[in-house]
Design brief:
Alpha-Beta Plaits, 17 strands
Length: 392
């Protein structure tokens, strides 16, 4: 309840001043983007966590609940996803075979095959319960690793080309895999916490003395390539794997046997049309016009749009053509309607897109320009519409 002094003060204050005082903390919030990523470096992925499975039936069990094909005799890691029964994404993950590594010998002390499942740290407990619920009587041991027991690192060298042959368990027992989701993402390496330091990463041959970079450097590199990761960018039980490009990022084997969520995934792949996909986007000042190419600008000073903000066609009062799902400075990821925001043609219907079209997203009561880009690795895998010929 207001005191008489507070009531008189409020009565003497005009509505314009009250409105401006409420909006001031938001309207004056600065945008301070991180520096651009170095050409070579290594970033500790604090947003990821690991789940351990090992036992005689671990390969068979995992094969039945993930989207990618798992070969029991392979020591190469891979990208995959867990799906719901209706085919929506639960979690995007990396799977690392551990047999033959130092960590497997010390932690599992078993001759049976073992695996580490890398998942979003905020969702690790949920996925652990999901796996445990399906375990039933399968002969395997399941454990959620303690934080810091093994750290996940991403290492990249712009002048070096890692291939699928450079992954697996190395001679010194280090576990790694090549991140094949998009070109140039480098390697993911699992390292005990005591092996990493600050500044230059040391005591680990896998990182080869690379300069330690912040997590933002890894995020910027992902965004420039149009690669989503984790449940903030791939909302759990809301997104189809094709919408998140998991099929294009080599996370689905369409020839493997049954797994949870396979029916809708296979049917969409063979007969459906994927109209929405996650693409990299550039955010710009609409007074300067859209950029010609996708580049990160560390001097970008405009406000940052909120996550899940609608992307709309400029000057049109129509349904949203996309949604911003994450951004750093002037770049981000957007769930885009392909035929409305790009020149891609995915259906037999006429495309409404023209090169003159402009799109906007709102940030702190200010409209900013948004332009979607189609990376070459995505464009080369998008199938054109099947035109049915009429039989005369």
């Amino acid at each position: 309840m207001l005191t008489p002094r507070q009531s008189s003060r409020l009565a003497s204050t005009c509505k314009r001043c009250i409105k401006s005082s409420r909006s001031r903390p938001y309207s004056t919030q600065p945008n301070n983007p991180p520096p651009p990523p170095p050409t070579s470096g290594a970033a500790k992925l604090t947003t990821r966590r690991l789940i351990s499975l090992h036992g005689p039936e671990a390969p068979k069990f995992l094969q039945g609940i993930i989207t990618n094909n798992l070969r029991a005799d392979s020591r190469s890691g891979f990208y995959a996803a867990f799906l719901t029964a209706p085919g929506k994404v639960l979690n995007d993950v990396f799977v690392y075979p551990t047999f033959g590594s130092k960590w497997h010998d010390e932690a599992n002390k078993s001759e049976d095959q073992g695996y580490l499942v890398e998942v979003d740290a905020d969702d690790a407990s949920f996925l652990f319960k999901h796996i445990k619920r399906h375990k039933l009587r399968a002969k395997l041991a399941l454990r959620l690793l303690d934080e810091g027991e093994l750290d996940v690192w991403n290492a990249w060298k712009d002048d070096d080309r890692w291939t699928a042959h450079s992954q697996g368990v190395s001679e010194d027992g280090t576990i790694s895999l090549t991140d094949c989701r998009a070109p140039g993402l480098g390697q993911r390496i699992l390292i005990p916490s005591s092996s990493s330091g600050s500044g230059v990463v040391g005591n680990t041959a896998a990182l080869d003395g690379l300069e330690e970079a912040p997590l933002s450097a890894y995020t910027i590199r992902r965004y420039l390539r149009g690669v989503p990761e984790g449940q903030k960018e791939i909302p759990r039980e809301e997104t189809l794997p094709m919408n998140a490009n998991i099929d294009l990022m080599k996370g689905i084997d369409f020839k493997k046997g049954c797994y949870i969520g396979q029916e809708l995934t296979i049917r969409t792949h063979h007969t459906g049309v994927v109209r929405r996909r996650i693409l990299p986007v550039s955010i710009y000042d609409p007074t300067t016009g859209p950029p010609e190419k996708l580049e990160y600008d560390s001097s970008f000073a405009l406000p940052t749009p909120d996550r899940d903000t609608d992307i709309r066609k400029d000057g049109k009062r129509k349904p949203a053509t996309g949604k911003l799902i994450g951004s750093v400075g002037n770049i981000g990821l957007g769930m885009c309607r392909l035929e409305h925001m790009t020149d891609l043609v995915v259906s037999g219907q006429p495309s409404p897109f023209t090169l003159e079209d402009k799109f906007t997203v709102q940030a702190m009561e200010q409209n900013l320009g948004v332009k979607a880009f189609v990376p070459d690795w995505i464009r080369g895998q998008i199938r054109g519409p099947k035109i049915q010929k009429r039989v005369e």
